Amino acid sequence: MAKLITILAAALGAAYLLTSCAVAGGFSVVRAEELREAVRAYLVQREGEAVERTELSFRSVPDSIGITATAYDLRVGMGSSTRARGPVGFVVEVVVGGQTVHRCLVTAVIRSFDTVLVADRTILRAVTPVAEDVRRLRIETTGIDRALVSALDDLMGQRTRRVITRGNILYRDMFEGVPLVRQGSPVSVRVTSGSVSVTAEGVACQDGRFGECIEITVPGKAGRLKAWVADDRTVAIRAD
Question: Percentage of the chain surpassing pLDDT 90?
């Protein structure tokens, strides 16, 4: 009679079913391949489609585990590990009737890969890259903790914070939002006090994105004023 092993992906509360070899009597042997398959199933449940961009290599797996039961579950967790990359230890529990009867450690190395954008020529500061500026490259990302740029669509409404030289991988933190208001551009200054609003013309002294506070000048007013960017042509000042 074939036995049914339920592998419980503990992190997500999901179940994955396998059918293994026939068992006689009241004794079972959990084989190394069953432990490997339990870990693989757990990673699929935990990582979803991202698991397709990884390579899993097992380092240490018990050859076999003997238990006095014909039906059991394998419950898999990652212990203290917080990410499924690099050297990882998986805690696999053999559960019979809701009770853990054996616990073992399975170690593995998970390598991750992705296709990212790389500067194909020098990209100047404060510009939005175009197709001619970049090329796609598949790289190993196992040891990379910074957010990568994988498509030009990721950079819509973004511009470079600094010069990016040819051959550099593009990371999200190299970019910032394109300002609505640019330094030196004319702006409409809306001053509000209670229910009364007046408008004057001014000049932006800084770049500014929506909601940011920037400095402006207004003809006839000494010094600079602080105003909040309302849209691409308007800044607001509250006088109360």
Answer: 75
The candidate with the shortest Cα–Cα distance to 236, out of 207, 208, 209, 199, is 199
Per-residue pLDDT reduced to its tens digit, 35-93: 999 999 999 999 999 999 999 999 999 999 999 998 999 999 987 767 899 999 999 99
Average pLDDT over residues 219-235: 91
Matching residue, tokens 């030196």: 184
Q: Which fold has domain 2-110?
A: Thiol Ester Dehydrase; Chain A (3.10.129)
Q: Do domains 2-110 and 113-177 have the same CATH topology?
A: no
Instruction: Evaluate if residue 23 carries a pLDDT over 60.
Output: no
The CATH code of domain 113-177 reads 3.90.1210.10
The pTM assigned to this predicted structure is 0.68
- Indicate whether 22 pLDDT > 90: no
| CA-to-CA dists, residue 184 to 36, 80, 151, 204, 234, angstroms | 63, 53, 32, 5, 14
For 141-233, list the strands marked E by DSSP: 158-160, 175-177, 186-193, 196-204, 213-217, 225-229
CATH architecture for residues 186-238: Roll (2.30)
Q: Domain extents for the chain? A: 2-110, 113-177, 186-238
What are 136's two structure tokens?
């796609």
Which letter does DSSP use for residue 155 in this model? G
CA dihedral 24, 30, 31, 36 (to 10 degrees): 140
